[in-house]
Amino acid sequence: MNERWRKPATILASEPDGRGNAGAVIETSDGRRQVDPLLTVDAETSERMRLGYLCANCLEPFERAWPTQCPVCGVYVREFQAAYFAQQFRGIEIRRTYDHDRELAAIEEQIAREKETP
Question: What total of structural domains would you count in the chain?
Fold first, then answer.
């Protein structure tokens, strides 16, 4: 995977849609039925979707922005994605609550104390 554009979407969480649509079901073009989840993606994935480089429906990456239609799910990207993104995107930023640097410093401090204790 040398091409940078092929980078897959980064999904941080997936859960039933909490807007009263929990358990909403979508039917794929081949007849499969799937639950339509609420996805939490990282900032880069969200931006690629907003700029038309990633399908908002199936998360397929595109080599060029705003193709007429997604080659995987068939959604009309150029015509509908901007409005869909504006309607669906919540823009909630999830901040890291675990501070790796602080934890590492605490571990090093604990090791130093253990070395001092006979």
Answer: 1
